[in-house]
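Hi V.,

You were right to ask for the full record rather than a summary. Here it is.
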Amino acid sequence: MSAKNDKRVGRYDLITPMLPCKDEIMEKFEKFLMSGNYILGEEVRLLEEELAAACDVVDAVGVASGSSALFVALAMAGVRPGHEVITTPYTFDATMEAIILLDAVPVFVDIRPEDLNIDPGLIEAAITPKTRAIMPVPIFGAPCDMDPINEIAAKHGLEVVVDMAQGYGTLYKGQAMGSFGRMSTLSFYPTKNLPGIGDGGMVLCRDQRDADRIRKIRAHKAVRANDRLYTGWNSRLDEIQAMVIRIRHGRFNEEQGDRDQVAAIYDSYIPEAHRLQYPIGKEGMKVTHHQYWVRCTQRDKLRDLLDDNGIDTAIFYDPPLHRHELAEYVRTGSDMTEAERAGREVLILPVHAALPFEDAHRVGKIVQDFLAVEEKTASN
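Predicted structure:
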C-alpha cells in the first residue's frame, strides 16, 4: 500500500497496479511488435486455456468485449427473436442490450435486499412458453444463489447464461461462478478486477460444441446451430489485450487480497444491515468486491459528505433497467420494490487494489458516524 496523501480518494486507480507489471508488459510488447503475429496468436490461446482451467470449464473463447460475449453466448444458447430471457433489472445496460439485439425480450424480476442479486424465488412465476434462458448477474462480485436457479432451469428446460462481467474470482459453494451456467461471460474492461488496457471479453463454455461454434463466428465463419444459420462477424480478442490480461492474471490473487482487505476494513465500520450480507451462507462463498456498496435512506446526503471530505463515490443503478429508455422492449415479471429501493439508497465506495488502508479506515469512519446519526434521528 502506498502512503496516504492529500489527494482525493478516487474510486479507481488504474495506474498503480500496472507499475509492477510495466517492465514485463513492455518486454512482451516489443517481442509481439516484431513478431508480425497480431491477431489470435499465442497470447489469446494461452489466456483461453488459463481461464478455462481457473473457472473449471471445458473451454474459453476470447472475443472483442464483454457485450459481444453476452450476445454470442445467448445466441448459441438458442435465444431467438420473440424468446424471453429472465434476468435482473439491477445491472449494467449491457445485460439488457444483448437480449434486445437478438430481438428477444428481457424479463425482469426483483432482487434480494441482502446481496442485490436476482431473487430465485421470483423466477418461476415469470416463466412463460416463450422463456428460453435465465441470466443471473453476480452483481458487484457477490455470488448468485445458483442451486435454485439451476433447479428451476432444469425443471422447465431452460438454459442458464451467467453474466460474469463483475464476477471473475467469485465462488459459489467453493466453485467458480463461471462454471454454473451452460456458458458464462467475462469482461476485461480496464476497471474490472481482471483488466486489460482496452475492451475485451470471453465466453466460458461447459460444452465444447459451443466453444467451437463461437471460435468460428468470431472470425467471420457462418455456423449452423439451433436449427438456423448464424452469420459470422468480427469479434476477436486483441492479442495485446490477451498479453496484458495474462500478466495481470498472474498478480490477481495479490491484488484481490488488497481489495479483500479494504472491504474487511469497511465491514468493521459499517453495520451489516447497511451493506452486503450472506443469506446463502458463508461456507465456500467468495465475494470479489468489484464494487463495495453501502445503503441508507439519506444516500445523497452521505455522498455530499464524502465529497466534501475528498472522497469519490458513485451511484449504481438509479433508475434500474425497467425504467431505462429501452424499457419499451422489456417485460416485468414481478414488482421491482427492492431494485427501486436499491437505486435510491445504494452508494458505491472506493475499493481497488491500490487504495491505502488508512484511507479505507477514514472512509469507513465517516460512513459509520453518518449512519449512527441517521439511525438516531430515525428513532426519535
